Amino acid sequence: MKQLSTKVTSNAHGQDSSYFLGWEEYEKNPYNEIKNPNGIIQMGLAENQLCFDLIETWLAKNPDAAGLKKDGQSIFKELALFQDYHGLPEFKKALAEFMEEIRGNRVTFDPSKIVLAAGSTSANETLMFCLAEPGDAFLLPTPYYPGFDRDLKWRTGAEIVPIHCSSSNGFQITESALQQAYQQAQKLDLKVKGVLVTNPSNPLGTMLTRRELNLLVDFISSKNIHLISDEIYSGTVFGFEQFVSVMDVLKDKNLENSEVSKRVHVVYSLSKDLGLPGFRVGAIYSNDEMVVSAATKMSSFGLVSSQTQYLLSALLSDKKFTSTYLNENQKRLKIRQKQLVSGLEAAGVTCLKSNAGLFCWVDMRHLLDTNTFEAELELWKKIVYEVKLNISPGSSCHCTEPGWFRVCFANMSEDTLDLAMKRLKEYVESTDSRRVISKSSHERIKSLRKRTVSNWVFRVSWTDRVPDER
Amino acid sequence: MVSFATEKKQDRNLLSRIASGDGHGENSSYFDGWKAYEENPFHPIDRPDGVIQMGLAENQLCGDLMRKWVLKHPEASICTSEGVNRFSDIAIFQDYHGLPEFRQAVAKFMEKTRNNKVRFDPDRIVMSGGATGAHETVAFCLANPGDGFLVPTPYYPGFDRDLRWRTGVNLVPVTCHSSDGFKITVEALEAAYENARKSNISVKGLLVTNPSNPLGTTLDRECLKSLVNFTNDKGIHLIADEIYAATTFGQSEFISVAEVIEEIEDCNRDLIHIVYSLSKDMGLPGLRVGIVYSYNDRVVQIARKMSSFGLVSSQTQHLIAKMLSDEDFVDEFIRESKLRLAARHAEITTGLDGLGIGWLKAKAGLFLWMDLRNLLKTATFDSETELWRVIVHQVKLNVSPGGSFHCHEPGWFRVCFANMDHKTMETALERIRVFTSQLEEETKPMVSTTMMAKKKKCWQSNLRLSFSDTRRFDDGFFSPHSPVPPSPLVRAQT
Lengths: 470, 494
What we know:
The complex is a heterodimer.
Chain A lengths: L5 H4 L8 H11 L12 E2 L9 H10 L1 H4 L2 E2 L2 E2 L1 H6 L7 H14 L11 E4 L1 H13 L5 E5 L5 H7 L5 E5 L11 H13 L4 E7 L11 H14 L2 E5 L15 H7 L11 E6 L12 E5 L2 H10 L7 H12 L1 H28 L3 E2 L7 E5 L9 H13 L3 E2 L1 E2 L10 E5 L5 H21 L6 H20 L10
Chain B lengths: L3 H11 L2 H4 L10 H9 L12 E2 L9 H10 L14 H5 L8 H13 L12 E4 L1 H13 L5 E5 L5 H5 L7 E5 L11 H13 L4 E7 L11 H14 L2 E5 L15 H4 L11 E6 L12 E5 L2 H10 L7 H12 L1 H28 L3 E2 L7 E5 L9 H13 L3 E2 L1 E2 L10 E5 L5 H22 L5 H15 L24 H5 L2
Parallel strand pairs in B: 1-11, 3-4, 3-5, 5-6, 6-7
Antiparallel strand pairs in B: 2-8, 7-8, 9-10, 10-13, 12-13
Helix pairs in contact in B: 6-13, 7-12, 14-16
């Protein structure tokens, strides 16, 4: 239709991808313990539903914040009129301190360098508008969050060039992969404006190692380009390892206040750590004044509701709450992740060793008929329609190897997760017995076990990727 | 070793043109008015000689009703003990369709503010980050970079940013004249369309604000029909920004484009879109509730996907759903708001009448379009700017000069009246009185009194609205002094 823009008529919003189709199937037949026990269990939604009780308890103890009051007086009118794109100062201060706390108070965040946005969806798009012209490219390691295709490219006209990562080294970013991606962009006549990483990674659930972070900082330094670190899952790190932010690395390399530091930007949000995606709270943190200035003006297109800013400024200013929350959140995520990993193991399925995020990166390569993406899609359809689990196929995350799936664990109850794992186990066992194979079924199971064992061995040998593991 | 100059150049290349350019519009000299206010904001006790903010189109007259309702309905908050049982459901709700109850309540509110003359389908309601976000989204949906929208002048300065900055779309002015009350004529539309064609700009639509900002006028049925027919004939879109729909006062009625399309046979509804918001009618700009309402299914679909970039906080959706579902409250609010606006409008216009200052007859809005053409030294925008600086720095009133609204004729100023209390309004009028009497003193020897009287008469007769209801409210609520210095663009938005 010529009367509409090409943004409308094209599919660049990315929503025809399987990532979203799985959601649609779920919506038609959603699992409910009582009303629809045979429905599809949603495991494609990276939500953190484990700690609402902590927030609700806090609300009960803090009637002023809960009731939009200050010293017992309603400030609703004042909040209703507050639309300053600089944001509520108390909120930005509290947010900066929260970000510091998540990073063990090893680095500082200056509230005046924070730009609020309507979720990290908006924050990432805004950064693209600030840093790239239509046709410019950003390099992203694969696999990556499918939403980036929309957030980074759709309305901005920017391009994404993948940095191919493989399972051979646990999907870590290597120097050669970076260089290859850069050269690929040049071959395509695309000007590279920067690299964007998600750390901890979605969909992998792993944290970038210091080696990778150093590599990235050196790379952008030498190429004079930007580095965007989307640290939306920084508060979901469980286990013994601490989260290493790109800000830690800048500090350790004595690059704070350097020219390079002006090209490093952090994106954050409260959607994952606090489990509040509905509130639309995103943030850009940049050391570049011009970026802060431009992004602040752009935030007019998606400011955070003043009542939400007020509530959260009170919540995050309560240090007792934030430290209790972060600790408890970690604990619960760890337990839940363990439950998923054990359940998968019982089904003869392994996953990438991880210690962050709200999901696991699951290896189902051995369940593919052929080592192709067609086979992956076939398997995915079976899992959605027959096993009734909505999980996300690796191809939707631009993974270069077929057979990997992202499976979420923090958006359901223990019982639901149990049931999901039971269903998977049943499916795998029935598939094994049904499979038409060239070898005998006995040998098949043997080789499956062997592969499982070798995967175990493979995983265990990755301990060097986590420097501070105790 | 890189020189400072080269370094700066490198800096600029590191950012996009959008980020390093002036497309945001905030480098305009008109922001001097905001700066003057921010440096010295009026406060009746702390700063009685400060600058009075009359450049802010906010509706602060019914905040007390709002506050009362919120206190009486703790269940509308998901944080109070009465409402916390909904906390987790609402906190995780990020579906870009929006809460069904929110859409239903907003649709109902839109119907009420249009006197229930039309029905709005909740499934066509798409959220956005305020009307600011809505306009940008509509531009992204209807036009490609380089295309153009026709916009009648004078128009809200924020459009330059909202419709053009990140979209690359052009705005083509449709010139309107004071000689016919700034009406939008078909001749002017055709002329603008032709100008665009000559400049190789493909016109994709016409954007009108109805009621108008800055004029405060409403489009009558005939005019609306002619706009629908014009755009339909040309196969271009009609976008009606109806953000001030419920600010009509007195006996005046607001006619929405939604009503008019029902009366036009064979109207191509795929070309009709409405932008709305709760920022003005309800005085809730901080809550960021913008709406795109399109009769084009594909636009609804895509705008909804784009709304991911500016969804309304679910906490706010829940509050608004509860508030707007309370029909008794809504009816009372709309009624009371109109009465208070009418009274405030009467107060300022009576004051200006007494001083012989003209203003455009209007039926809506949170502002007046004031005529100071006779105070200009020459009929030029330079003169207008000079006069404006005097008003800001000497009279200490931050009003908005017509040039900032792309008005074709110098000498007009937008003056807001709904963002201050009664005492502040009195102070402002007093300052204007002092100013005009000073001017009269200065010009007395040069102009005879009969000439002055004649002059006053000629622009008064066409423009004055006689208003018998001079009911006054002693609101007694807080001064315009904000505890936090606001961003200039935030104020300029309105």
